[in-house]
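Data card: per-record layout.
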Amino acid sequence: IHAASAGETVGAEPVVREIGRRFPGRTIGVTSMTRAGKERAEKIVGVRSRFVPVDLPGPVREAFARLDPSLLIIVETEIWPNLIREAARRGCPVTLVSGRLSARAARRMAWVRPLYESVIRRVDLVGVQREIDRERFLRFGALPESVFVHGNTKLDFEPAGGQALSLRRADRERWVVFGSIRPGEVEPVLAAATRVLASSPHHRVVVAPRHPDRVGPVRNGSGIRWHLWSRGEPGGSRAIWVDTIGELLRFYRIADVAFVGGSLSNHGGHNPIEPARFGVPVLLGPNLDNCRELADILIEAGGAEVIAGPEELAERILYLLANDGERRRRGEAGLRAVEAHRGASARFVDRLVEAGLLGDLP
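The structure for this 362-residue chain is written out next.
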């Protein structure tokens, strides 16, 4: 299963579980492109994790010769030409799970349409999130009989029970988590965090950059003294800066309100299901190209709200912190929506079984 980064690995994990449940004893490998993705894959029980080879004929051919997979499953939009061509050349079936093509991605791909058409035609089964994704894949050469809508496997993700924090919170404390923050969002997030902390001595904030090494170190100021999570438990510190990776779900578990980043900048947003899975109301910026289907599920249910821009971030957080009933109602609505849309992983594996791509059941 090729899941380039940590986000795709979240969607790969339920598929691993579903295949393992039905076909015990099968060897499943997960390849990653990023360090965060590989570290997340290493936490999946029973999985062999490694980095994906650079998408050049030589390295890809060598990797296939070493691994000799019987099936290649690609998560979302990781359409790597040489990876897919080599699989097809060796007779290894290729499938896509939780496939998606945003309008922006489709415009980029149109510049080299012949390349993508030649590659997508080699994919045996194209499982997609929405009907609009199906239509876009068909435009790029996917065979109509190969494309099917099964949903988004990220909705089936089950957080590990051992990821609870050891932090103790007082009854009156309220925690705000700013998750997956991108470089262009640091200033508005710090401004919102400052206002949240100033509004009550019982408020605590957590800022978790998507890539801590790209954001740079946080500086104390505006009356805030930040505690770096890598230094251990924060004690009485009210402001935590998460300078490590793979920790965000721990903080979402204890959050009262969550803002999911990548949505105020031009990165297209990140997975809003992660906090909603814990019954936490979610705030999002307007740029949601990369998580539109998941965001719409929560927005329509009332579990998430889109703010117009940075100036609204603190206002909406403070509103939710001040209204316990509304905050609980939104959190419960989001959790119900997540539960109602689960099952994408089982639907995908059902199709693999029907197509004979996983072999006979033991």
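Known properties of this structure: The first strand starts at residue 28 and ends at 32. Residues 98 and 128 are 5 Å apart (CA to CA).

See the next section for split statistics.
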